[in-house]
């Protein structure tokens, strides 16, 4: 569906720093996600997860560092970077007076997709939003909005899929649809980054977990290391 070949899909971040006045939200971060791989970004509130994803999503310029998504330098070519990325922000991103179908129409037009209707219908079914596809999103519940945001990020089959808190407030069927979308993205060679506070789902969705603290990586290890009670204790120890 996209012009970008799956083989080029990868995330390569080196020395990323983002500051807001005196706040060093991200502080010299290195991060890599191979094509077909999935990495969970975890850490306490304010650790820098969303800021990192905003930079990768092309909506926030970094203070310094290099960010390459699917072979595109996101700092030098932010517009091209936005084309190869599908980004689900942690909040917002939906037009209150537009319906899901209108969001999909707009996304298809902006990205120059043709023959998109069948995939749009299939995604709406899978995310259980077909019955709400003609309702304006202003009246959506939090979980419905989350599901639509994930669906929109994945719609154009991006080479890099960025999901910020995709499971937040989402019911089990919505969680399953999101996990399935992550699996499908990986199968076609996309690199996936998921920020979440839900360790169990991080372990299910990703093979690696990167723990951030104060904008820095304090651990990068197999996600399975964070599984169960032992993993939770290991994680907790990394937080302070
Ligand atoms: N636009 C902004 N202006 C000022 N400070 C900001 C801005 N965006 C983020 N920050 C600060 O940067 C730091 C990292 O925030 P960020 O949202 O990346 O954390 P997070 O790990 O996603 O947290 P959470 O788990 O609560 O979503 C925080 O101290 C936050 O207050």
From TrEMBL:
CDD domains in the cross-refs: ABC_DR_subfamily_A (cd03230)
Pfam families: ABC_tran
Organism (species): Longivirga aurantiaca
PANTHER family: ABC TRANSPORTER, ABC TRANSPORTER, ATP-BINDING PROTEIN
InterPro entries named in the record: AAA+_ATPase, ABC_transporter-like_ATP-bd, ABC_transporter-like_CS, P-loop_NTPase
GO molecular function terms attached to this record: ATP binding
Keywords associated with the record: ATP-binding, Nucleotide-binding, Transport
Signal peptide positions (record): none
Annotated ABC transporter domain residues: 11-239
Domain of life: Bacteria
PROSITE patterns reported for this sequence: ABC_TRANSPORTER_1, ABC_TRANSPORTER_2
UniProt record similarity statement: Belongs to the ABC transporter superfamily.
Name this polypeptide is given: ABC transporter ATP-binding protein
